Amino acid sequence: MNAIGGMGLHKLFLVEDEALIRSGLKHLIEEVIGGYRVVGEAENGRLALEALKSVKPDVLITDIRMNEMNGLEMIRRIRDRYPDMYILILSGFADFEYAKQAIKYGISDYLLKPVDRTELAQALGEFKRKHGASNDLPGCSEEGETELRGRQLIRKVKELVAQRLDQEISLQYMAEQVHLNHQYLSVLFKSETGQNFTDYVSQCRMNRAKQLLKETNLKIYEVAKLSGYLSSKHFMAVFKDYTGSTPSQFREQPEGESHGRGASG
What we know:
Elements: E1 10-15, H1 19-33, E2 36-42, H2 45-52, E3 59-62, H3 71-81, E4 86-91, H4 96-104, E5 109-112, H5 117-132, H6 142-163, H7 171-177, H8 182-193, H9 197-215, H10 220-226, H11 232-243, H12 247-252
Parallel strand pairs: 1-2, 1-3, 3-4, 4-5
C-alpha cells in the first residue's frame, strides 16, 4: 500500500448512495483532514466492485445499507480479492449485528453518521500510523491483524478497568485511552467477550467487593468505596441483587455457599 508518489497522497475510495454525502466527505477528507486523494466513488457495492478492478485504493470508506448490494456483502467480496485493504464503515445505524459482522470481515473502524470530523481524522490517522512504518506481521492478512489488534485492545481495556475499580469508569473514557470511537469499542468489546461493557464493569466491581468482604475486615462503606460505589445504600442494593445476599450475610457465609449471578472474568 503505497501513497501516490512515495511521500504523496494516499488513495481513497468512497462508497455511499447519497451524492451529497459523498461530496461532503470528499471535501472533508481532501481539504480538511488532508493527506488523501479520492480516486473513485460509487453509489453501491456492485458499482464499487467494478471500479476496484481498475483502481486499487489504500483506504475504502463505505456505507452499509445501500441498494443492489449492501456494504457487508461488498466487504465480504473485497476481502476475497483484496485481503489487505483498509476499510472504514460510516453508517447511520448503530446496529450491533451489522457491526459484529463487519468486525468479522476485518474492518478497521465503524463510525456513525453524521460523521464526526475528529473521529474520521482519528481513524484515517490510524491508517497513516500503521502504514507509515513497515509493521506488518509476517504471514498475517489484514483481517488476522485486525482480530489480533482487537484482542489486544480488549485486554488493555480490561487491565484499565481492573486498575480503576474504585473510580468512575465510562465507556467514553476507555475509548479515549485506546484511541477508538466509543460506539466501535462497545461493539468490539461485546464481540470479543460476549458481554456488554457496563455489565463487565459491574461484574468486576462485584468480584472486588466479594473478595474484600471475605478477605478483609473493612467496613461495608469502605468496601463499597473501594469497589467504586460512593453510596453504601446503592452498593448494598446492587450487591443483594447480584448475589442474593446482603454484604453482611455474604461475609458470614462459609466459603462455597454464595450463589451470585455473575461468573468470574
